[in-house]
């Protein structure tokens, strides 16, 4: 799927090829007023738009669509979709616009359209500009058309209807730098989020730490600005990563530490210069280990590498845009299974930082692999560090699926992530990291325990990580509730927080301008 912007006249669109199924979508108001695009279309169709609205007054509400396949623009093969946008006297809210683009994307999909020309980004939405509307609209098409059929038999894939190939966004300012950047971001996010979804949906028997390592190498082949290095168990042993390796001991799949450097500023042959570090949990299947999880919905624990997958997707997006910054992606990857060699409750391990950890619950394994990756990231002298992890069920309880949990030790970084979340629609919400919570991690036998009791599970998990990021500018995103839509036929990866992280990096790259 590709997005392009154009300031063409919508009545003068070039005819599309014979095998294309193309449509034009314009907004209509409820009070007899036509949007500029609808007025043009009305003229070109000898008043058909006005007649249609008169016959279907309900279709002007936000989220309602009117599609009449028999209405085609003369001399072109364009079908027409009319999208309700309410009264012209009431500015649309963000929520209204979400409803409109969601309905549009569903219609495009159900009609198996291959080409779409949209005038929707010319609407007015409260406090938002055209660039934002473009981001919101394109994300809806990208999400609606995503399919994970790698593991379906050929027949199912062949039966699937044709899918959307090109969306032309009509905008008078199509040639402006703002719209240009918005379209580049939309295309980049389409690539990045698709990669993240594919990785996170792939089950544990396919998506192992070694598989993720090969995918990191494949990504570096795709983009010249990326360079991948894989550390195996032996290399990690030498570095003293006793916490990470203890988790992997319960599995027959060898652990990997995946390191992907993005040279957007420094030349590829040169060292990264104070890169932004993204550290993503890459636990390819979490059965809990000896502290085994209940059976119900355990299949979903294949997405316990969604933080790592988000690092892949974000690097893909920024490489696609050639963003002028340096970034280092680090993905500690392992399985967490019960086994004769697995961690046992009460075991004490020594992390790469030298701090010792009493493992009271083997299911709190994410922090064990992350703490060594966080210590390792210091060797790159990062300007700031963000870790991304499906870390706690408690975060799902606290924030549900609407916001990722956000904790950290730097208020400016936290504010910047919140702002990027609001702009991208991929929101985060802060939780406190107070010393009182940290005390819950005390252990009589080691420097700390790996769990902090029943209360405030998301915060004590972050307190644990904070002990490994002292004197770094650090933030932690708990994406347990946002990276996946659970249950039923619609279950699957959401690619969050790739939009948030990509927007954050775009903002960072513009700071020096
Ligand atoms: N991967 C899980 C967290 C999780 C739970 C992610 C639900 C997505 C959905 C993590 O490794 C885990 O098991 N955490 C434990 C921590 C507890 C033992 C302190 C949890 O949340 O139950
Ligand atoms: Mn776990
Ligand atoms: Zn886990």
In this structure, how is the largest beta sheet organized?
9 strands, mixed
CATH architecture of the largest domain: 3-Layer(aba) Sandwich
**Distinct ligands:** ligand BES, manganese (II) ion, zinc ion
Give the overall shape: elongated
The third-level CATH topology of the largest domain is Aminopeptidase
Q: Any idea what the CATH superfamily of the largest domain is called? A: Zn peptidases
State the helical fraction.
Answer: 25-40%
Number of strands: 20
Mean pLDDT over the full residue set: 95
Count of runs of 4 or more consecutive helical residues: 16
Describe, in short, the structure shown.
With 513 residues, the protein is an alpha/beta fold. It has helices spanning 36-44, 48-55, 94-110, 130-145, 154-159, 177-201, 209-222, 233-239, 242-248, 306-321, 366-377, 393-399, 411-424, 435-438, 457-466, 498-511, and strands at residues 2-6, 22-28, 65-72, 79-84, 115-118, 166-170, 226-231, 256-263, 276-280, 282-286, 326-336, 348-350, 356-358, 384-389, 404-408, 428-430, 448-449, 474-478, 484-485, 492-493.
Protein described:
The protein has 513 residues and is an alpha/beta fold. Helices cover 36% and strands 20% of the residues. It has 16 helices and 20 strands. The protein has helices at 36-44, 48-55, 94-110, 130-145, 154-159, 177-201, 209-222, 233-239, 242-248, 306-321, 366-377, 393-399, 411-424, 435-438, 457-466, 498-511; strands spanning 2-6, 22-28, 65-72, 79-84, 115-118, 166-170, 226-231, 256-263, 276-280, 282-286, 326-336, 348-350, 356-358, 384-389, 404-408, 428-430, 448-449, 474-478, 484-485, 492-493. The strands form four sheets. Strands 7, 8, 9, 10, 11, 14, 15, 16 and 18 form a nine-stranded mixed sheet that branches. Strands 1-6-5-2-4-3 form a six-stranded mixed sheet, sandwiched between helices. The protein has a three-stranded mixed sheet with strand order 12-13-17. α4 packs parallel to α6 and α13 (411-424) packs across α16. The radius of gyration is 25 Å and the shape is elongated. It starts with a strand and ends with a helix. It binds ligand BES, manganese (II) ion and zinc ion.
């Amino acid at each position: 799927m590709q997005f392009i912007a154009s300031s063409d006249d919508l009545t003068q669109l070039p005819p599309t090829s014979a095998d294309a199924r193309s449509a034009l979508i314009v907004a209509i108001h409820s009070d007899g007023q036509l949007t500029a695009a609808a007025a043009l279309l009305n003229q070109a169709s000898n008043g058909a738009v006005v007649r249609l609205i008169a016959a279907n007054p309900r279709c002007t509400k936000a989220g309602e669509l009117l599609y009449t396949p028999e209405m085609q623009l003369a001399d072109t093969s364009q079908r027409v979709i009319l999208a309700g946008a309410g009264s012209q006297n009431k500015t649309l809210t963000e929520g209204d616009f979400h409803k409109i683009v969601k309905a549009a994307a569903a219609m495009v999909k159900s009609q198996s359209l291959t080409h779409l020309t949209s005038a929707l980004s010319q609407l007015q939405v409260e406090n938002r500009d055209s660039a934002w509307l473009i981001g919101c609209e394109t994300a809806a098409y990208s999400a609606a058309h995503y399919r994970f059929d790698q593991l379906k038999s050929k027949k199912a894939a062949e039966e699937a209807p044709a899918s959307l190939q090109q969306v032309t966004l009509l905008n008078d300012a199509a040639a402006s730098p703002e719209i240009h950047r918005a379209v580049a971001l939309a295309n980049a996010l389409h690539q990045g989020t698709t990669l993240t979804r594919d990785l996170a949906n792939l089950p544990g028997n396919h998506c192992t730490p070694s598989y993720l390592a090969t995918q990191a190498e494949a990504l570096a082949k795709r983009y010249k600005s990326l360079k991948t290095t894989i550390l195996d168990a032996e290399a990690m042993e030498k570095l003293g990563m006793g916490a990470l390796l203890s988790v992997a001991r319960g599995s027959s799949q060898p652990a990997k530490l995946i390191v992907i450097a993005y040279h957007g500023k420094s030349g590829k042959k040169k060292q990264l210069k104070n890169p932004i570090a993204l550290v993503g949990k890459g636990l390819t299947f979490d059965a809990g280990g000896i502290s085994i999880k209940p059976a119900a919905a355990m299949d979903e624990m294949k997405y316990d590498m969604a933080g790592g997958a988000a690092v892949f997707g974000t690097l893909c997006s920024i490489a696609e845009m050639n963003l002028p910054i340096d970034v280092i992606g680090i993905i500690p990857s392992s399985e967490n299974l019960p086994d004769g060699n697995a961690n046992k409750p009460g075991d004490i391990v020594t992390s790469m930082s030298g701090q010792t950890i009493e493992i009271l619950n083997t299911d709190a394994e994410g922090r064990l692999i992350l703490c060594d990756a966080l210590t390792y990231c210091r060797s790159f002298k990062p300007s700031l560090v963000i870790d991304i992890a499906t870390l706690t069920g408690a975060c799902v309880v606290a924030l549900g699926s609407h916001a990722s949990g956000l904790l950290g030790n730097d208020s400016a970084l936290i504010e910047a992530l919140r702002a990027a979340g609001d702009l991208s629609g991929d929101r985060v919400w802060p939780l406190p990291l107070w010393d009182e919570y940290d005390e819950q991690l005390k252990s009589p036998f080691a420097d700390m325990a790996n769990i902090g009791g029943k209360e405030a599970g998301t915060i004590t998990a972050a307190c644990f990580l904070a002990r490994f990021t002292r004197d770094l500018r650090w933030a932690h995103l708990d994406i347990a509730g946002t990276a996946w839509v659970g249950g039923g036929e619609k279950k699957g990866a959401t690619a969050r927080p790739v939009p948030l992280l990509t927007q954050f990096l775009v903002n960072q790259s513009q700071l020096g301008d």
